[in-house]
TrEMBL record:
It comes from Bradymonas sediminis. Coiled coil: none annotated. The lineage of its organism: Bacteria, Deltaproteobacteria, Bradymonadales, Bradymonadaceae, Bradymonas. GO terms for molecular function: peptidyl-prolyl cis-trans isomerase activity. Signal peptide: none annotated. InterPro entries: PPIase_dom_sf (IPR046357), PPIase_PpiC (IPR000297), PrsA_foldase (IPR050245), Trigger_fact/SurA_dom_sf (IPR027304). This is Uncharacterized protein. It comes from the Bacteria.
Amino acid sequence: MSWNYRRVFSAGVGVAIWASLVGCADSGGGHPSVEAAFLDLQSKPVSAVVAEVDGRPISAEELSASQRVGDASGATLEQLLERELLVAEAVKRKYHTRPTLQHARKQAMVQQLLAQEVEGPVKVDTLDADALKKAEDALRQQVGHPPGLQASHILVSVPPDAQKDAAKEDVEKWFAQAKEWLAVLRDDLPDRPTIPDLYEVRARYRDELPKPLEIHVNAHLMFPIDAYLADEKGAADAPQYGRALPETWRPVVPEFGQAATDMARADNFGQLSDPVKSNFGWHLLMAEKLYPAALPDEQQLSEVARAQVERQARHKELVARMTEWMEDASVQTFPQVISEAHDTQN
């Protein structure tokens, strides 16, 4: 088979050293040197040879493994030949004797161990159904938003600070005055006012109101309205949307939200409402625009939830195996040596 030697420099360094990372621990449980492992690999007979580089045979099994795992995942035969040439050149220059490669070799063995002993036992079809549903429900709260509404209003308010320390009779009197003044404002407004109309009326009357009454205009408020929609189908059939409200949306007082929602459902957009009372005073409002609920893509939501649960299951398996292995291991540290090594590095 012919191949282009110029392409050798396109192979990744990680691909080049992969072959030197597959040696196994010796019978004593330690790690043989990389050089010994490499020479041992070269000396082993190969039954099914797919190619040779400088007499070094590459088996069909090795080709198959390089296409499944490690940095060479999906490698073609040509890429494997490039890798072998780089490995041979690295050995000539004694790169395989460097401590950094021993560290990389250990990392590769750890990856193999985790893939076989931790990831392998966790099968998608064995994931806990309750955990999947819980993950989906949690994600659903973070994706999409309920239906919303944009509305504006003019308010004759009884400021909360004034209500706080006042007698009940005074608060009732102020609310009665607020309703009367709201009627005055209403008579000075068209049935379908513009936002400038609301601000002009506020400017015209704001200094005439008795204390502590005030006039406020809030234009283009956007808020969720799912709390004000009658659920005709029942909770079980209600749409499933998240609570990730857009940044410009803000909750409103229930009386305002319900009145604006009722006007929108009656298709009375842009029209002034009847007087609406809340704890803040008396409102005239108009519904302006509906925003449909943003529902999550159920397939994507399910896939993400499944990935989360699978990751949690693998973590649980890892903790269990690590606990088991740690109990069987004899671990000793040498603080003085560690301290000296740390001081040397700094």
